[in-house]
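Limitations
The structure tokens in this dataset are predictions for the assembled complex, not deposited experimental models. Users should treat interface geometry with appropriate caution, especially where small molecules or nucleic acid strands are included. An illustrative entry is reproduced here so readers can see what is and is not provided.
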Amino acid sequence: MDLPSAILQQAVDQLRTLPGVGARTALRYALHLVQGTEQEARDLADSLLALKTELHHCRLCHNIADSDLCPVCASPKRQRGILCVVENVQGVMAVEATGQYNGLYHVLGGVISPIDGVGINDLELASLTDRVRRADPEPVTEVILALPATMEGDTTAYYIYRQLSPLGVKVTAIARGVSVGDSLEYADEATLGRSIVGRRPFNSEG
Amino acid sequence: MDLPSAILQQAVDQLRTLPGVGARTALRYALHLVQGTEQEARDLADSLLALKTELHHCRLCHNIADSDLCPVCASPKRQRGILCVVENVQGVMAVEATGQYNGLYHVLGGVISPIDGVGINDLELASLTDRVRRADPEPVTEVILALPATMEGDTTAYYIYRQLSPLGVKVTAIARGVSVGDSLEYADEATLGRSIVGRRPFNSEG
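Predicted assembly:
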């Protein structure tokens, strides 16, 4: 598609770097901005740039934050002795959305993936061990691994387990199994297999 | 969904103003930027702002342009006595993509729509009549209406027809009919009806 302007082409090329955005969608976004006011374009541009220039990362858990501490770490209501290890911010939001967790987090910033060039030192792994070792402000009694059920997630989980078990902390992982509401015939074999291996005493609460 | 940062929330809110972007997609875009470099975010932000600060509109046809004239109006190869009237830039690109048109354009910037508050003076309608009247640089022999097949498009087409016919210019409209490759049973009644009314002598070129 030939665009009538290099400036429009430039904006389309930039928009195409967003995940899942192709040429047609990028053009739709760009023309929407062309048809809007300059203030609207400026507000959008400023808010996107602020994501890199103004956003902080929590010094404790490395979650996204507006200041030194994220809202979870800053909350006096959370249990500070339990850490939930997640891959990224989306992980924090997914666990928070369940309303079932009241501890703190540790955001790795990815998972170990040699094929993508992500090694141990690219992730917040040393800082996790350090957090457990320091016992500051209070001893960590449990580390819950809530990592993706992929080869990379499993590798990362195993690495963390090896690092933390000498420190005497309890390391657990979220349960893998058939989704709530799913019938068995639609569950994939790997998931059903893990849910059988990970079976637990029946009680009326499920 | 509770976001851990007001800055992130702000970016998500801004991204949601783009057409077809919901909360989930906006968050995906924003987190992609958070995980990228500051230069990447800056390049995107700059290119979006440039759409309003650097983009021009062609002084002849009002298409998007990088300078005083758009590439079509600037081209010495185009027939300058034929104008194709379109709603917006997308219209220009759609007609150009056919490779069947060698005249110039006139971009209205919308269609008459009282319900959306778009009146005659909000569109490039006076400038169209003016272009035909001035006969500059050469007389306009035909004005082709390529407007959307909606109530608003039809209203706009009729208004233009009323303005231009006293000037003695030939006013035509693109054919409406069954799409190439479509079978009759899937064409809607309005389209099929118009294609029967608009039937033309058969020849081997279709």
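Some entries come with short summary sentences. For this one: Chain A has a mean pLDDT of 90.
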